[in-house]
Amino acid sequence: MIGCFEALVAGLRRRYRAVRTSRATAAFFANPLNVVGLVIVATLTIAAVFGPVVAPTDPSSQELANRLQPPTLAHPMGTDQLGRDVFSRLLYGARLSLGIAVAVTAIRLVLGTAIGLLAGYAGGLIDELLMRLVDVQLAFPGLVLALVVAGILGPSLRNVMLALAVVGWASYARLVRSSVLSTKEREFVQAARLMGVSRHRIAIRHLLPNTIGPIIVLATMNLGTVILGTAGLSFIGLGAQPPTPEWGTMLSTGRHHLRGAWWLANAPGAAIMLTVLGFNLLGDGLRDVLDPNHDTPLEKPT
User: Fold this and answer.
1) In a domain, 298, yes or no
2) At 102, is the pLDDT very low, low, confident or very high (cuts 50, 70, 90)?
3) Of the four listed, 122, 177, 209, 284, which is most buried by Cβ atoms within 10 Å?
4) Domain named ABC transmembrane type-1: which ranges (predicted)?
């Protein structure tokens, strides 16, 4: 009898989770802006993965006889000052930009989560020291600090990745710490302590899972921010160097031909704008769904 009761309870729990998940999914797709963000991010991902396969030409192939050609069927986004296909360079740039964004965001997430978890759970002097370090890092504007770090290390994409990773982890640390501080005094954590569960296991099994939702939202929005920062540093010459097909470098080159060849700057500029917009919209939608204190209505507003 007890076994049947436990099986019934387990089945009800699974059903409740399935219903909750379906409601969250329905709430996400009920907002058109969330769908727009998801479509933009999915399109960018497909372009980054399959772009080199469908690209019309090699991004570094030069045809000086076809330089500065306007958009045509052969070159959907025209050619640049060296006769290179802008559409092909844009597709290769999508893979480069998205790869850098994922790598930098992963470094920020791991470093910031570890520091925030340690500070929030340990408390005391460790918490004070780590939070003062976070305050010092947040006292400087992120892009300005990344500019200084990249300028010291020298112009290259690797140095841009290091610079952006160094300046962005503090937000994760503060977010995780606040979540841990509100969770570690709850009943299930106290019960685990009374049962003799180790501090390491409590932190990994009970505290860390409760920070996943806010971390996912922040990481999603950070992807767009990193792409924008990478393009900005490349635009001023501290990131990718020619002939690398990076969006910021393409935008920097195209600004010299705004009157005669408008597509050179508009194509990468539009790609950057849409990418950042897509990640911001997707992050807003995930925040509404993953926030346990936010109950998104399924009815459309009138």
Assistant:
1) no
2) very high
3) 177
4) 94-283
CA distances from 45 to 90, 92, 224 (A): 13, 12, 13
Global pTM value: 0.82
The beta-strand segments (E) located in the chain are none
Cα–Cα distance measured from residue 184 to residue 172, given in angstroms and rounded to the nearest whole number: 18
- If asked whether residues 213 and 246 sit together in one domain, one would say yes
Instruction: Give the C-alpha distances (Å, rounded to integers) separating 275 from 78, 94, 101, 180.
Output: 21, 9, 11, 32
Residues 6 or more apart in contact with residue 83 via CB below 8 angstroms? 62, 63, 64, 65, 66, 67, 69
DSSP category for residue 74: S
Q: What percent of the chain has pLDDT over 90?
A: 22
Token reading at 57: 């030409």
How does pLDDT run across 24-74, given as a tens digit for each residue?
Answer: 677 778 888 989 999 999 999 998 888 888 888 888 888 888 888 888 888
